[in-house]
Queue: 3 jobs
Job 1
Amino acid sequence: AQSVTQLDSHVSVSEGTPVLLRCNYSSSYSPSLFWYVQHPNKGLQLLLKYTSAATLVKGINGFEAEFKKSETSFHLTKPSAHMSDAAEYFCVVSRNAGNMLTFGGGTRLMVKP
Amino acid sequence: EAQVTQNPRYLITVTGKKLTVTCSQNMNHEYMSWYRQDPGLGLRQIYYSMNVEVTDKGDVPEGYKVSRKEKRNFPLILESPSPNQTSLYFCASSLGAGGNYEQYFGPGTRLTVT
């Protein structure tokens, strides 16, 4: 079994300040982990993925995430928020083989001017 | 342009009236799936398909049917919709199954069942 918990349903930051979106997972095998972003009225777009290579993963638009096996975490960070980052973010865990994708409940990021 | 398309984008219907939401991808992907998105629950997988004529249930298949007669199309069928199927639905495709493959999502279909 696998599960994903996004620890904050809403995060609000000021433009230019750091972003931290938290994700914890549980899995009985070595998982792949993803972050997806969903802008208003749009589909989901892949930000970055971890598939058992480097533990620090860099994605698009300046985002990165660090896989910490001991903490079962995969938090998403960005040094400086931009207004265009306002969106909903989903942490996703997947088996390396098979079809099961499990989504977290989502974190809505708001960026204040 | 590589994309996943869904139709319709918005649909309001009444309880019990059969409906189909179409999904098509132009990337020659083998793997396709349907999700529903509800507030606070993230996305939950309804059905998936590994290839033509190969489909299987996801987490929440009750009340839904799918078919995969062609590689590019994966329609979602609600034979007798009920209000608890009011949701935002996404179709997705990928080159293969499993964690190494990025999912490409359609723009979503917002369904309201009254």
Job 2
Amino acid sequence: KNQVEQSPQSLIILEGKNCTLQCNYTVSPFSNLRWYKQDTGRGPVSLTIMTFSENTKSNGRYTATLDADTKQSSLHITASQLSDSASYICVVRQGGYNKLIFGAGTRLAVHP
Amino acid sequence: KAGVTQTPRYLIKTRGQQVTLSCSPISGHRSVSWYQQTPGQGLQFLFEYFSETQRNKGNFPGRFSGRQFSNSRSEMNVSTLELGDSALYLCASSLVGAGGSNTGELFFGEGSRLTVL
């Protein structure tokens, strides 16, 4: 069954600290993986896309990794800010079927 | 470049009523998809439209329907509303590559928050 599992479900960290969010998938065949950030009451916004051949990609303080062999991705946030408080959603595109499989998201709260 | 516009932003209905939500995609985007989001459930895919045709459909009852117009604007309709239909309904548009393949980023609207009493 094609699934995307994210962990942890929720996370609280102090401002300035780093954190890592996990995404494990069983989607096959794999096309690409995106991380989205969703602020409360807003629509999700893409942070980064990972394709099969990419291991690491950065977008400012956000760094995504992909291990296609173990079917795992992570999103690392460096020097967190209050504005990082949001839900982070991992989305995997299934190759050949034009389908997206969504993770349930990780809710991050950054406290001062 | 204007983003994805959804209307209305908020609405309250009672059980048994029906509702129509509207979505205007980013200019040039021909694919429009709809999602239901409830607390703790994440984003649940409803359906996707491309060139006025439904390409993919999620596992929702027939009370949920949609359509797309020639200008790529889309509407979704929920009939015979139930309490469990209370949710944030998100619309997303995306560019479609050659051959109709959709490999691009989803651009989401702000959503329509539906409350069913």
Job 3
Amino acid sequence: GAGVSQSPSNKVTEKGKDVELRCDPISGHTALYWYRQSLGQGLEFLIYFQGNSAPDKSGLPSDRFSAERTGGSVSTLTIQRTQQEDSAVYLCASSSTGGRGGYTFGSGTRLTVV
Amino acid sequence: AQSVAQPEDQVNVAEGNPLTVKCTYSVSGNPYLFWYVQYPNRGLQFLLKYITGDNLVKGSYGFEAEFNKSQTSFHLKKPSALVSDSALYFCAVSSPSGGSYIPTFGRGTSLIVHP
């Protein structure tokens, strides 16, 4: 597509439930990134996918968080047993290899855990 | 490890005056530097980048930034601010030559342009 698409745009869930967030990157972009933006905070790196290589999961805050990228395209970020501190905006970005062209961000998913 | 510092949480400027949003960075290799802008309830929009070449780079909406290697800075500037420039601005760095393709972002600076 023309841009990075994220869905849903908003998600309200009850504490303890699992949620799935979807990211559809720009066609042809081999790199995909997930970030978390909490109120008043900067962007916290979560996970990085590059082509068929093993993802860099070094930013995932706990084992309740996982992500996959199928066919080198669409990615799903899953949060299990959600907690209130998981409430944030989850941003996805994609880029060509190396990021020389910059990073294109989606509009984000605003997750609220009640 | 790479890092970015945006020392000002908020910058206030009158419309028509020049603006500067500060950014300093730390990387182990040659930096790729970026500025992004975020409007309320929106994702980040690309403004400009420094990869190599001229230290002064020009970007969208009349913004420019100067790469200063000795001061490890990449300050964002605009000669004449508009009220519509009011938004949250993020500086980011990556360093493929230093081993990290993953961009690190600063905490963001809220720019408020007063009419």
